[in-house]
């Protein structure tokens, strides 16, 4: 079982969209996927039409008062399951911050899943902030997958993410954490800026950048309001095609020999 944190400290970059639709596309390929919604806003949860679910979140498991296996909820897609989120998760940050093992609570919570082999991949949809929940996700994950919007400040955001990975390693919470991949999102082929941003990110981060780019799509924005993934809502549209391609590339990368820990081709200080 591989644990992948899908995170970016900036909101509005397609993080939850990527978590939900990559998970759905991987399940369509026959892989057993668990999506863990770590965002108190519960956008991943509502993307599956589960906004009415209450008291089924990681709140109790993170406090050691329940098992994560009790909080796993099925979705309409075979092989795709979710641990929903609710507003209580906002409060759990305060409570686990007082614990001596506050950075590794999620890693401990996920241990029962590692022993039973039920899932091939666990995708952690992180909140868009550098708080306790994201720190726990990075401490628990084998790797970080970060979606980056094709915009002017993309490289600046990536430098911050690289530094965050270094901090997690240096803290001892997760010395093996690596940057598993970068997904360029909201690509607009009509503008020169999008192509330039992708080229710049590829120049600095090389093979860490996925070949698949996710296009800007009204359908991708609409799908969550119907409680559906893009695979269900518009299965033949550009968004669904892109996420299916991303899922295939994701599997190819994880079938290859392990790549070395993330490095950038230029020091972080030289990128800015």
Q: SSE layout and pairings?
A:
Blueprint: E1 2-6, H1 15-28, E2 33-37, H2 43-47, H3 59-62, E3 73-74, E4 80-83, H4 88-97, H5 105-116, E5 121-125, H6 132-140, E6 143-149, H7 154-171, E7 178-185, H8 192-205, H9 218-222, H10 230-233, H11 238-255, H12 268-271
Parallel strand pairs: 1-5, 1-6, 2-4, 2-5, 6-7
Antiparallel strand pairs: 3-4
Main features:
272 residues, alpha/beta, Rossmann fold, seven-stranded mixed beta sheet, 12 helices, 43% helix, globular, disordered C terminus
- The main sheet orders its strands as 3-4-2-5-1-6-7
Mean pLDDT level: 88
Low-pLDDT parts are 257-272
Strand coverage percent? 5-15%
> From the alpha-carbon coordinates, what is the Rg to the nearest angstrom?
17 Å
Per CATH, what is the topology? Rossmann fold
Q: Into how many domains do the coordinates divide?
A: 1
Provide the structure class.
Answer: alpha/beta
Please count the beta strands (DSSP E, at least 2 residues each): 7
Q: Report the CATH C-level class.
A: Alpha Beta
How would a textbook summarize the main sheet? 7 strands, mixed
CATH superfamily: P-loop containing nucleotide triphosphate hydrolases
Helix fraction?
40-55%
Structural summary, described in words:
Helix 1 (15-28) packs across helix 11 and helix 5 (105-116) runs parallel beside helix 6. Residues 257-272 have low confidence and may be disordered. The protein has twelve helices and seven strands. The radius of gyration is 17 Å and the shape is globular. It has a seven-stranded mixed sheet, sandwiched between helices. The N and C termini lie far apart (36 Å). The protein has helices at 15-28, 43-47, 59-62, 88-97, 105-116, 132-140, 154-171, 192-205, 218-222, 230-233, 238-255, 268-271, and strands spanning 2-6, 33-37, 73-74, 80-83, 121-125, 143-149, 178-185. The protein has a single domain (2-271), classed as Rossmann fold, CATH 3.40.50. With 272 residues, the chain is α/β, with parallel strands linked by helices. The longest helix is centred in the middle third of the chain and has 18 residues, at 154-171.
């Amino acid at each position: 079982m591989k644990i992948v944190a899908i995170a970016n400290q900036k909101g509005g970059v397609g993080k939850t969209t990527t978590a939900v639709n990559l998970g759905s596309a991987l399940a369509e390929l026959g892989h057993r996927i668990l999506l863990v919604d770590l965002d108190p806003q519960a956008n991943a949860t509502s993307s599956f039409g589960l906004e009415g679910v209450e008291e089924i979140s990681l709140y109790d498991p993170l406090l050691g008062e329940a098992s994560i296996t009790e909080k796993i909820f099925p979705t309409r897609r075979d092989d795709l399951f979710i641990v929903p989120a609710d507003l209580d998760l906002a409060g759990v940050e305060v409570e686990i911050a007082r614990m001596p093992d506050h950075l590794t609570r999620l890693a401990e919570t996920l241990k029962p899943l590692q022993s039973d082999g039920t899932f091939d991949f666990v995708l952690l949809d992180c909140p868009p902030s550098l708080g306790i929940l994201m720190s726990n996700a990075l401490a628990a994950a084998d790797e970080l997958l970060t979606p980056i919007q094709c915009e002017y400040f993309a490289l600046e955001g990536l430098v911050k993410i690289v530094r965050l990975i270094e901090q997690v390693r240096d803290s001892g919470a997760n010395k093996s954490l690596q940057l598993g991949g970068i997904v360029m999102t909201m690509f607009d082929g009509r503008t020169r800026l999008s192509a330039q941003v992708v080229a710049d990110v590829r120049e600095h981060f090389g093979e860490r950048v996925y070949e698949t780019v996710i296009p800007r799509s009204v359908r991708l924005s609409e799908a969550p309001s119907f409680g559906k993934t893009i695979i269900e809502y518009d299965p033949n549209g550009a968004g669904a095609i892109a996420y299916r391609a991303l899922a295939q590339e994701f599997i190819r990368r994880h079938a290859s020999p392990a790549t070395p820990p993330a490095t950038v081709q230029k020091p972080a200080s030289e990128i800015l």
